Amino acid sequence: MADSATSQSAPPARKGFAALELDTRLLGMIGAFILIALAFHLASGGRFITPRNLFNLTIQTASVAIMATGMVFIIVDRHIDLSVGSILATASAVMAVTQTEVMPNWLGLGLNHPATAWVAIAVGIITGGAIGAFQGWLIGYLTIPAFIVTLGGLLVWRNVAWYITSGQTIGPLDSTFQLFGGINGTLGQTGSWILAIAASVAAVWALWSARRNKITHEFHVKPLWAEAAVGAIIVVAIMGFVAIMNAYTIPSRLLERRFEARGEVMPEGLTQGYGVPISVVLLIAVAIVMTIIARRTRFGRYIFATGGNPDAAELSGINTRLLTVKIFTLLGVLCAISAVVASSRLTYHSNDIGVLDELRVIAAAVIGGTALKGGVGTIYGAIIGALIMQSLQSGMAMVGVDAPLQNIVVGAVLVAAVLIDIWYRRRIGSQD
């Protein structure tokens, strides 16, 4: 069916930039990130917008961003979770003890045995999922407010982690496990470009497929040039990101040692970039899965329907209690995945891991456009929100702002984000 067939029932055609039909909220968040980056770049004497700092910024963002994708579902369903940092700490403690004590002493497998990392990750995910399911059961079936349950969980699981490790720092962790942390595990230059090409092809195919589906069902579509422009923007963004990651070069001495470990001699003048961190690849995978869940599954539709109108959702046959258990279980699993990223980046488990992550995760989701009243939220928005939060923290640390003042700024930004969200939705509502 031709595009013109859809124009009869479509709204008046937009012209120029408006024809792109880009999310204004998304543009606002990207604009905010650019302004923050430019401000700190000038304040730091040109040190913020560099390949090295942007590389570090991505690996620092990954852990919080992964949890933020799950927090979107929690807030959309009109709940809150104040325990995510403590669940991360417990999962990290369990994985660290599994690697350093259980596997060597109980099973007779060394720290760097091929199975050690994977067994530890599996145990951590089971732990996080079990904690999330338990808290979800208390909220869904015993009807205890989520604020109270997770506030208690913040205290309980933080100290459970302390008892698991006897208050000690556990490390070093398994070498395979450390690959998920960032600088210790990257795709390299060639692998990163392969990923960029594959991601670009997938993005263009997704746009084209969505357009064909809209035409088939006689829905409004953008002009073909606008669709092509959006595709070009996405491809340029992907290629630019990979180029920046590849531009951060491995120190020559470290590169030389890598050649020596393989029994080779490093060619004179050779340079190699780190490439895309594996932790970022993991974040991308989580984002894709969570987006599919939100947009293409019955589970996702139930979450947004319940958040929009809980009474109507229950009357329509949705088991809202079981749904609550499921979303908290999912967040618990994501906390465990974040624990893998956070502890492997440090190469050890520490008692303060995940401290204040509750604030960062909630702030990321809210800044990303997730409405506290429920029913509205996006996965990509939460990830960009996490990037903005980490940019603020990293930038303030770079220019020498004290830690207490950093937390004051983060708290103020969270309040401001909620206020802006209220104004934005009132404005949209008045236009409707």
Mean pLDDT: 88
Sheet having the most strands: none
**Radius of gyration computed on alpha carbons:** 23 Å
**What percent strand?**
under 5%
Shape: globular
**Continuous helix count:** 16
Q: What's the helix-strand series?
A: HHHHHHHHHHHHHHHH
Query: What is the rounded distance between the termini?
Result: 30 Å
Helical proportion, percent range: over 70%
Describe the structure.
With 432 residues, the chain is mostly helical. The protein has a domain at 50-183 and 277-357 and 371-387. The chain contains 16 helices and no strands. It has helices spanning 3-7, 24-43, 51-76, 84-106, 116-140, 146-165, 188-216, 224-247, 252-261, 278-296, 298-308, 310-315, 320-346, 357-367, 379-398, 403-431. The model is unreliable at 1-10 (pLDDT under 50).
Key attributes of the depicted protein:
single chain; 432 residues; mainly alpha; 71% helix; disordered N terminus
